[in-house]
Amino acid sequence: MRGKDFVGVADLDGPRLAAVLDRAAHLKDDLRARRPHPLLVGRTVALLFQKPSLRTRVSFEVGMSQLGGRALYLSPSEIKLGEREDGVDAARVLSRMVDAIVARTYLHADVETLAEHATAPVINGLSDREHPCQVLADLQTIRERAGRLEGQVLAYVGDGNNVAHSLMLAAPLVGLHVRVATPPDYRPDPDVTDRAREQAERAGTELRLLDDPVEAVRGAGFVYTDTWFSMGQEDEAEERRAIFGRYQVNAELLRAAGPSAVAMHCLPAHRGEEITDDVLDGPRCIAYDQAENRVHAQKALLVELLGHGLASCESRVAGHETGRATRDSGLATRDG
Q1: Is 131 assigned a catalytic role?
Q2: Shared domain check, 141 and 264
Q3: Is 266 a catalytic residue?
Q4: Is 331 a domain residue?
Q5: Which of 266, 285, 296, 298 is labelled catalytic?
Q6: Is 53 exposed, middle or buried (0-12, 13-18, 19+ CB in 10 A)?
Q7: Cα Rg, the chain, nearest whole Å
Q8: What is the per-residue pLDDT across 2-45, written as a single tens digit (0 to 9) for each?
Q9: Which of 108, 110, 226, 240 is labelled catalytic?
Q10: Residue 35 annotated in active site
């Protein structure tokens, strides 16, 4: 992946995704053991955001700091991508100043424009089509909980949005079975669905699109939901609340899933709408594990994308240490 973009889940194949998840687990272990890992010293990542953010911004800023680099936040009011600053120009200018660009946009086309014209790697921090960084953390969290990804069953309940898209596309790469329950008029994008079905057929995994949330969760180990309306859809909020009412993740739906099922949410949550307080705050919810793992999964991704200088850097350091040891030895001999 070094030097490549991460615009969507399709930018990874199974082995590369496994490598990112393995590295994320190692980096998390290092952090908990207080073992520093300054793998990206001197590197800078630009956070080019059209939308406000808690988890995406903080996880990338903290992650780059822990890796020895830095993140530069460019707020929606500063850049006004597509208004004040054309995407082509922003991509070309930032490529000459930073080592990677994280874009959080309304339109997926804006991320694609940046990737097309930037020479620095572009990472999709969220778009209307996909949320691939979130799904990296989701997969890491499922693997931590279940011990493995292959054969696990995840039921996604709610709006067939960008998170659902990325889950559907990532699942066949890791052997995960996915059921998506949405109202009929809010199903995932047909093009994404067709691509995900093809991948699932090749991988031998299950992908089912359903109307009934109870049928979707029955026997699932993981029950995932997201907000019923995203930023930019506020004018649809009341209509969506009426339509999505029976897709709420609550104690009753978790009981239908089974005694070992856990709830997932990418956050922010609208408590009392897509998920109830007792579920979100209860022992059968791993939403905050998902949020924490954004740091580790994205650190692993950044190292994969920007680590092309690691080997040469380590070689230079080793050579410097060898040379210094030789010089020191020579000085000791002469002094003797």
Answers
A1: yes
A2: yes
A3: yes
A4: no
A5: 266
A6: middle
A7: 22
A8: 669 999 999 999 999 999 999 999 999 999 999 999 999 999 99
A9: 226
A10: no
Percent pLDDT > 70 in the chain is: 90
Using an 8 Å Cβ cutoff, are 130 and 166 in contact? yes
Which tokens sit at 16?
């590369």
Selected catalytic residue, list 43, 55, 57, 104:
104
Question: What's the pTM value of the predicted model, to 2 decimals?
Answer: 0.90
Candidates 202, 199, 210, 209; CA nearest to 170 is 199
121 and 160 belong to one structural domain: no
User: Is there a single domain that holds both residue 159 and residue 270?
Assistant: yes
- Which of 138, 294, 296, 298 is catalytic? The answer is 294
> pLDDT (tens digit, 9 = 90+) per residue, 243-285?
999 999 999 999 999 999 999 999 999 999 999 999 999 999 9
Asked about 246 being catalytic, the answer comes back as no
Which among 50, 134, 199, 290 is annotated as catalytic? 134
Please tell me whether residues 274 and 300 are part of one structural domain: no
Domain boundaries, position 274: 132-290
- Do 169 and 112 fall into the same domain? no
Is pLDDT larger for residue 204 or for residue 317?
A: 204
Identify whether residues 18 and 73 lie together within a single domain: yes
The yes-or-no answer on residue 134 being catalytic is yes
Please check whether residues 102 and 18 belong to one and the same domain. Answer: yes
Q: Measured over all CA atoms, what is the biggest interatomic distance in the chain, rounded to whole angstroms?
A: 88
